[in-house]
Amino acid sequence: MTNATHPFDALMDITARPEVVFVRGAGSYLWDDNRNRYLDFVQGWAVNPLGHSPAVVAEALAAQAKRLLTPSPAFYNGPSLKLAKALVEQSCFDQVFFANSGAEANEGAIKLARKYGAKYKNGAHEIITFEGGFHGRTLATMSASGKKAFEPLFEPKVPGFRKARLNDIESVRKLISPSTVAVMLEPIQGEAGVWPATDAFMQELRALTQQRGLLLIVDEIQTGIGRTGKLFAYQHAGIAPDIMTLGKGIGGGVPLAALLATGHASCFDHGDQGGTFNGNPLMCAAGIAVLEQVGQPDFLKSVVDSGLFLESELQRLSARHGLGDIRGRGLLLALDLKMPIGAAVVAQAFAAGVLINAPQPDTLRFMPALNVSREEISAMIDCLDAVLAKVGAARRVA
């Protein structure tokens, strides 16, 4: 696939993409090379907490690029130390390892849990994960995921992951054996269609893992960095996990992720973990800029307020069109369409200049910038209202 301006065929064909090339972004908007503007409620799959090309991130990157890009991970650098300290101070964790992607951070969490099992639990290595979970696209993180589409891919899978059911503590309890070292979950299963773990379940899980001497790992790649109205989603339940992973939003649009652990769980020996670009000062400078903005109490309150407004508008829309429930928390929400029309809705919204996402055929997911305005929410709702009316009419005719 190619045209006179853009050689699309030079990129490996790994997903269906519209023949549109984006060239500029600002806040909640993207522009393509034909000057068409799009209101973005995907934001790179929750990657841009401050919207597209926020000034604070651009300025931090520009200033750091003039000083030092990377000295090698064999040496300390100032931004990585500052960002690690800030994350530790605002969480229940003691140490941080920086990575380049959420999958890499989750891979690190799996390795850390297995190292812990080797050191302290007679070689226990199995990790209980959950049906519907999504932890990344490396071989180990795909194996840890509970995504049905992954099951036939890239066999043989990495062994050692047993699947429980979300919000069913007995299903977890039944899977625990002498080989179990940890339980790993997303506080909200994003790719499955925005299915939250209840606060009560998170509390039960923490109690069970502590009782049985297991590590509790929270994958906050999508829910972390303010997305749910608290800096980290585990804080809603009032618990203290042993390990947490961050990605997406922490970099504000650049490749940055993190593996955090308590002192109790931090057991890597020298040489166990590393990476050429991990913790480089350029990316960490962006992370500092993001955290300084998102970590402010007033900013987090605005996320809660915007999330409640978006939720109420989606509920009104659902009632009008006879659709289903609204799921999620803060500014990670889903609308149950009750019909497999997600792809059609996304395509028609795109044609109308609004970007939304359908992680499942019957579900729409909303991941706007955390500083999205009420006017932008209302504009998206108006577009979606018109699209749903059109799609619904077409289905009735069919």
TrEMBL record:
Gene3D superfamilies: Aspartate Aminotransferase, domain 1, Type I PLP-dependent aspartate aminotransferase-like (Major domain). GO terms for molecular function: N2-acetyl-L-ornithine:2-oxoglutarate 5-aminotransferase activity. Pyridoxal 5'-phosphate binds at G102, A103, F134, D219, E220, I221, Q222, T276. It catalyses: N(2)-acetyl-L-ornithine + 2-oxoglutarate = N-acetyl-L-glutamate 5-semialdehyde + L-glutamate. InterPro entries: AcOrn/SuccOrn_fam (IPR004636), Aminotrans_3 (IPR005814), Aminotrans_3_PPA_site (IPR049704), Class-III_PLP-dep_AT (IPR050103), PyrdxlP-dep_Trfase (IPR015424), PyrdxlP-dep_Trfase_major (IPR015421), PyrdxlP-dep_Trfase_small (IPR015422). Its cofactor is pyridoxal 5'-phosphate. It comes from the Bacteria. The modification N6-(pyridoxal phosphate)lysine is found at K248. Coiled coil: none annotated. Its EC number is 2.6.1.11. Pathway: Amino-acid biosynthesis; L-arginine biosynthesis; N(2)-acetyl-L-ornithine from L-glutamate: step 4/4. It is found in: Cytoplasm. Binds 1 pyridoxal phosphate per subunit. Keywords: Amino-acid biosynthesis, Aminotransferase, Arginine biosynthesis, Cytoplasm, Pyridoxal phosphate, Transferase. The keyword Cytoplasm applies. Its main location: cytoplasm. N(2)-acetyl-L-ornithine binds at R137. PANTHER family: ACETYLORNITHINE AMINOTRANSFERASE, MITOCHONDRIAL, AMINOTRANSFERASE CLASS III. May also have succinyldiaminopimelate aminotransferase activity, thus carrying out the corresponding step in lysine biosynthesis. NCBIfam families: argD, PRK01278.1, PRK03715.1. Homodimer. Belongs to the class-III pyridoxal-phosphate-dependent aminotransferase family. ArgD subfamily. This is Acetylornithine aminotransferase. It comes from Bradyrhizobium jicamae. The gene is argD.
